[in-house]
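To close the chapter, one final illustration. This time we ask the reader to focus less on the individual chains and more on the assembly as a whole: which components sit near each other, and how the overall shape emerges from the parts.
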Amino acid sequence: MQVMKKTDRGLSNKNLLNTFVELIRRASSDLPVDVVTAIKEGLLTEKRNSIAYKTLQMILKNIKLAKEKSLPMCQDTGTPVFYVTLPNPPLSPFVKGGCSGIRGIINQAIKESVHKLYLRPNIVDTLTGKNLGDRTGPGYPVINFEEWEKDYIKVILMLKGGGCENVGTQYALPDSRVNAGRDLEGVRRCILDAVHKAQGRGCSPGILGVCIGGDRVSSYEESKRQLLRSLDDRNENPVLGKLEQSIMKDSNRLGIGPMGFGGKTTLLGVKIGSLCRIPPSYFVSVTYMCWAYRRRGFEYENEKVRRWLY
Amino acid sequence: MVILNSPISKKEVVKLRAGDTVHLNGIIVTARDVAHKYLIEKKPKEYKKLLKNGVLYHCGPVVDRVGKKWIIAAAGPTTSMRQEPYTAEVIREYGVSGIIGKGGMGDRTLEALKKYKAVYFHAIGGLAQVLAECVVDVKDVFMLKEFGSPEAMWVLDVRDFPVTITMDSHGNSLHKTMYEKSGAILNSLITKGGL
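The assembled structure is written out below.
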């Protein structure tokens, strides 16, 4: 009976809508503290008044300005990628229309965010080339739904810029171009090759999300999901943790630096996960995130935000 | 640090070298994918005066309208490589002296920079707020209705717009040098093994 009662009460879509708009504002204008800290740490490794130092200084100034003005830190407000975790239906505080109800609220929140200048009108019909303005359409935004046993909603939003998305890449091992076999040394070679090929074009210093294994789609998906981890966390798997450290160290030896101008800060972080695979496939997927690593989240319970994430 | 005023004469262009940091003043015109295609396929004559010795900016800004005024709310550079198929021809047709963007450009553009005397200015990617503050006036906008706001050609008056020359009119490209230099380091790291 108690469960029924909770279900009956329902959630106000208006409150949830406002929370989504605030989520978008925070994501677009206010860079999470783990990322800002990593950029500051990068600055300290660079020679004072070198171009790398000045570039990172300028980036920090930009971050501060965007926060003060509640305006996009980068005009490419990217593809909004949402990760929505809903309570199991019997426990669920009712959101009208379930997943499609949430989708409707998100689409409305995007429309409002375009009018408030938190987002650029950033969606184009691929066939006609026409900009759809404040509207949304198939593939934009990306929304991933999941369920869990807790009785509140969790939402994470990542704004994924186009420049860095374009330098993401996938390898199928063995890969003779980079002399990579089907082992961790092969994986290492692929990832370092991706960092080298990207140069500054993904707006370095960047953050890598990597997945080893899976099929082509799940592998790319998991590589992006790795970016939800905090920059200062530790990989639960010691083998992957060691690989992360090794890639980080070697990448920052390449000398590419901020924007490819040269310097020690090529990457701010490396996050690697793995999925099972079938014997014929061995994928290494790399998602490159620019320094404007915009991700924010919230937990929502009883008509209000339980806590903000990141 | 070099202070430059746009339009930039070809005489000034040849003095500039890859590696120079520049504060740019004057008129710059935004152009992204759709505008480049339009400039090449339709060859509209009315832009010739505007772009002669002018500076193109690879940027799709966030723009606000306050009363009758346009306000640039965010305006960082976009990836320049997407304009590689068009840029050599745009430089030749319109006499452009400078391109602002990010990530650098390829061999065709580098050749055109040399042949027709122009430079590539690298702005810092993602610097949307700092660069928006350098815009003191929006002078005009072209093809707004046709292309939509991010793809329209915005004529911006800027002050102290910070950029670094990474490709010059003498055939130098810092992007090429960096690719080779970091490639050599990569090879030594691979040979050494890491795990």
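Residues 163-289 of chain A form one domain. The longest helix of chain A spans residues 51-69. With these observations in hand, you are ready for the problems at the end of the chapter.
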